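Dear colleague,

Following up on Tuesday's group meeting, I ran the structure prediction for the two-component complex that the binding team flagged. I've pasted the input sequences exactly as they went in, so you can double-check that nothing got truncated or mislabelled along the way. The structure tokens for the whole assembly follow below. Feel free to forward this to whoever is handling the docking comparison.

Inputs:
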Amino acid sequence: MINSLKGLWVTLVSTVNGLRQPVTQQYPQTGTFWKRVDTPTPVKDRFMGFPGLTWDGKIDEPYCTGCMVCIRNCPTLCMSATMKDNPAHEEGHSHRRKIVDSFEINLNRCILCGICVEVCNFDAIAMTHEHELSNFARNAARMDLPALLELGQDFQDKTGWIPPNERAKKAKEDEIENGDGVDNPEPAPENAELEQA
Amino acid sequence: MAEERAQQSSSPVAGAEPVEMLLNMGPQHPSTHGVFRMVLWVDGEKIVDLEPHIGYLHRGSEKLCEGEQYNQVITLFDRMDYIANFNNEMAYCMAVEKLMGLEVPERAEYARVILCELNRIASHLLFVATMGLDAGAMTPSMFCFRGRERIQSLFEAVSGARMMHNYFRIGGLKEDLPENFNQLLTDLLPLIHEDVEESDKLLTFNEIFLARLKDVGVMSAEDAIDFGFTGPCLRASGVNYDLRKAMPYSVYDRFDFDVPLGLDGDSWDRHYVRVQEMYESLKIIQQALEQMPEGNVASSLGRRLVRPPKGEVFMRAENPRGDFGVYLVSDGTDKPYRVKIRPPSFCNLSAIKHLLKGIWLADSVVVLGSLDIVLGEVDR
């Protein structure tokens, strides 16, 4: 009897507690219960959405050289790419001898693991914050080069993306300026073995 | 109580011959926790015999591992026990590290322990939620899911994904924890404690809940050992066996925590042991957060390809569901030659026939729920 009353008391307390602002949100809407906004659900900074190709604004060309490292390392084999000689390099605008010619990712197969970003040596691919790409056609999620670049550019504009290589370089310079951690062991030859694989 | 029930006549007409009926439960049944199917022979409301059917979620993960490089295999381990992803990743990474003799940076070890224990709490919260639903309590599940959501949003801040993290690497972590991680976690811990306590208060000693779970599906300590029970299911039967204490891996030997044990080995004990484990996990996280050093988390391998020497290795880790074992054979190439997994859910599920024979049909749902199976791991 006393136990039952105790149980009822706990339930009552929880009910009263439950009358606060709801935790659940209607899917496309965010904001409070009284004031709802039709913006997509916010994601965290590190959120891994679909991969997109980044754009080098300085030279006005994609970072990607079509070196196929990401394609060889993709666990689901969802990408393909080809490379070509870079015309801008012959004219002397660009330091990239080769440039991506075509690139395709089947986003239906992508498992958003982020391995492609990790292995890329040229900062050419990034996990964007895009995660709402449902559609009706079976092949509509196959993204070609312009679509991927658009995804990537959109991500760059929204988040102020800094290429990881540049960020690492900057961090290292800062460390040297501060005078500590100079003897940080540099990770061994970049992808030396990957290239052979 | 179960014996009393069993003595009552179950046949519709007194003195009539018992009539057996075949009942198919699952694979699309909300109480089978995934795609698990049981064919039950029932006499009235009593289960006479049953046959479990598994394999509806079989994806051939073990075979798929043989076609992937060592780093890519982590993505497959994320999808084995999809409620406790970090724990699976940890078991696999430890296996490869053991094979290669790799040292993991101190900070990475602590980060792993914190994330694994958080994942254990998230997993147990989900268990409490579904246990309540199985017994007919709707409210606690809402509170539990709120707590789990909080943990998952921390995971998103750390690894970039709520469930399929792919964050642990062989010999370290993918990247350092976010800068405000300590702050995030310190803010989160009291909230989780609140959530756990609230669901505990609402459910554990509830009269109806006790009546449904106490003395239902009793597993004696000897039987539990014989059936290969591990994890909370084994400890509920009173066997003090926790890998984190019995053979400490990672940095678990540096923390002070207790191993909760059950008395009777019934469904309620299996529930209560898990509730208590959540409090212990919170203790571990608190200590790990205080002890966590600064420093490097990256693997000493750098970005080189993982190529373990020829050999084989077996490594176990204490997952929320029990003893998760990884057996790995390497032939010296960049892909594993063979990966065999010892899934705790599968071994715990193997006792289902023993547990359900002779009890009421309505209790079968509760007993199955108390084993806390994840079909992604049972079928692989």
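Chain A touches chain B at residues 3-4, 6-7, 10-11, 14, 17, 23, 43-48, 73, 75, 111-115, 118-119, 127, 187-194, 197 (CB under 8 Å).

Cheers,
M.
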